[in-house]
Batch of 2 targets.
Target 1
Amino acid sequence: MTSYKELGLVNTREMFAKAVAGGYAIPAFNFNTLEQMQAIVQAAVETKSPVIMQVSKGARNYANGTILRYMAQGAVEYAKELGCENPQIVLHLDHGDTFELCKDCIDNGFSSVMIDGSSLPYEENIALTKKVVEYAHQFDVTVEAELGVLAGVEDEVASEVSHYTKPEEVVDFSTRSGCDSLAISIGTSHGAYKFTPEQCTRDPKTGKLVPPPLAFDILHEIEKRLPGFPIVLHGSSSVPQDEVDTINAHGGKLPDAVGIPEEQLREASKSAVCKINIDSDSRLAMTAAIRKHFDEKPGDFDPRQYLKPARENMKKMYIHKIVEVLGSNDKL
Ligand SMILES: [Zn+2]
């Protein structure tokens, strides 16, 4: 058993309470490579932001759980080395699908886990979440649950259609399951193709796809019923058009990729939404920089030559999200 406390990590409890009270949201960036980790830590330190570094089941299989644990510990030490005296870094499991996986993460240094029972019948979702909460709380690990289903594809999590969270269920669910935060479905979606062109309208001036707006009425109804309770938004990448254009201009093929407009995430950050998950934007920033580099310098073959601009491009994106969208800067 390795407690996250030994690694210098924190759970989400105090972080979320401050974020809800302060009207901002904590960035939850997915990672599984050294360069992503370095860029996340540099961005968080430079902006004085708390940060959640999260790992999906697929990412954990890719990078190896033991390595990730030491990377998270390395992230804390690296933040200190960069001049941050008291880094607030969470290592979080994104979309845990079984009690056993959540337990394994808790036993191996994670400070927060998500148990995603959203595809189960309601009572089974409560029972599974409660089981994880009872184990996690013994070790002061916080638990995120999900109610409602997001559309889109994220690693092994995939659904064709979304089902919005029903506000009338949130009090019963959070009370009986004991979860510390709740991921809801209000129209965000996993992946870089969040909406089909048919679901969107086209901006007559630019010809670009405009996605349907988020269901803020549902969010506000949930806030009313669960005052001050931490709410989480998954699938909240914005799929920046300039990165998509760079990828497509340098041999890539991402037609009609669509994300969530940043104005809507900015608005959500001011509400009870206190954690916003961003994964695809980091993938796009990394891929755009690497494609551009290879196109311009086809003779390069040292990974550092193309991973350095990739890391810089991700860092720029992380800083932009923290300062311009979530408002979690200057909170340490
Ligand atoms: Zn998700």
Target 2
Amino acid sequence: MKSVRVVVVGAGVIGFSTAVCIAEALPLCSVTLLADKFSPETTSDGAAGILFAAKFPDIPLERQKCWFKDSFDHLLAIAQSQHSPEAGVMLSSGWQIFKEVPADKKPFWSESVIGFRNMTEAELKRFPDHKFGQAFTTIKCECSSYLPWLEKRFRKAGGKVEQRKINNLQEVSHSYDIIVNCSGLGSKTLVGDNMVYPVRGQVLKVEAPWLQHFIRDGDGKTYIYPGIHSVTVGGTRQEDDWRLQVDEEDTQSILVRCSRLEPSLTKAKVLSEWVGLRPSRRNPRVERELVQLQGRRVPVVHNYGHGGWGVTLAWGTALDALGLVRQCLREKQLQAKL
Ligand SMILES: Cc1cc2nc3c(=O)[nH]c(=O)nc-3n(C[C@H](O)[C@H](O)[C@H](O)COP(=O)(O)OP(=O)(O)OC[C@H]3O[C@@H](n4cnc5c(N)ncnc54)[C@H](O)[C@@H]3O)c2cc1C
């Protein structure tokens, strides 16, 4: 019999990854995923989905390396399996290029991706504004396919899904023993976390099937990521900007910047434009706490605030969140014995 009731709040890539990890690893828990928005309406759905990361300032580097590697290895196994087209996960090779030689020439994730090396002079010739570059193979995970695929996997493991908005954690504290908070930017109001803020991102999808390699400017603002059905070009990083509507000036700026890197893009047809708000925080919050809710101390596991790297770190942080749920279960057993 299932004895412990777990609710995961959030149906983006963090919520579904966490829910699948818990449901598959802990068959004695009954797991419900609750959210007001599901695919294709989450932030995760529009993310370019390239596996890549920058360092968070206050999290031990070893832990960040683990998050990246666990996610990479999980998605690599999918990319190299028969599930790849349905899950929207593919290998992607290309270049990250820099106008100035960066201080850190070997990012912390360089050993997790495939074939990381510096670009040769000959390769750099096609980018005359850039002095330095790195070539590697990473993964592109398209969440508009990956989220429905994860949802199927979650249901197969016995998980249940409910669509509703909650205004605070009290609303679910009576019905569940453990609450897992994966509400992204929603955590600002749901748990009153003022450290979470939006970083607005606008991207376009274009038809350019001749492009096979990704190109990312090291400043992180301009990128070209070929995908399964189209090429994602971007972008913008506008802090504390809550606008969800497409900005025509941003569209023009993206097209100009990307065509400078890849002139053939002037011939590409724009298929769609999209805006999303990255759930940013100085460091993602992956931790547990006991919260006093309706006269009871309820274990809450938080997993949110991944900023521009949520697709990259989803599986790794989900495994950490699973570890925190296990700790909650151990403490519950201990309490029951006392
Ligand atoms: C333009 C752009 C490009 C990006 N490119 C990349 C990339 O290449 N690689 C990468 O790794 N990342 C990328 N990202 C970042 C990535 O999209 C995010 O880090 C990731 O989607 C965060 O996932 P999440 O599950 O935390 O949030 P979300 O996808 O926003 O999901 C949050 C969920 O919580 C639910 N929720 C919130 N509040 C409540 C509530 N009160 N009640 C019920 N449900 C609630 C929502 O309905 C939703 O289901 C990009 C982002 C943008 C905007």
